[in-house]
Amino acid sequence: MKALFLSFESWTTRIAMGLACLMLAVASGLAVFQVITRFVLQQPAEWTEVLIRFSLIWMVFLGIPMAFRQGAMVSVDALYRAVPTHLKRILDAIVALAALTLMLIILWWGYDYAVRGSVQTMAGLESLSMFWAYIAMPAGAVFAIIAIVANYIDPRRMELETAQ
Question: Is it the case that residue 159 has pLDDT exceeding 70?
């Protein structure tokens, strides 16, 4: 069961990473297009600004789970270093529970925010609902929950080390 979940987590991390890279490419491409239309053609394409913001929002929320999994999130490990080895697993459980609680709150509030924001649009691209920007919060939270559980199940897989 552990191996199956870690395989699933690895697969979902690759999906999140691929989507985050796609969103970065979209934002970068649209930014270049925006510069050309604004400064070269003197006719700015205002709709690109909205899509750049949407892409960056998605990129950030899809990047959070990868940071969790790699151990790249900001942490204070003074307590972790101070506790005896046999208590570190208990501290891991407390930290995982706190992180899961935070992600469940983001999942709940993010979904509620997306539903409520579905009637909103952005200036410059009125045909696109704000739902598509706001739903990045719960989507990122789902990927983060998977990463947090995977870190708790197998903490040795974290790729980065904390600063010494």
Answer: no
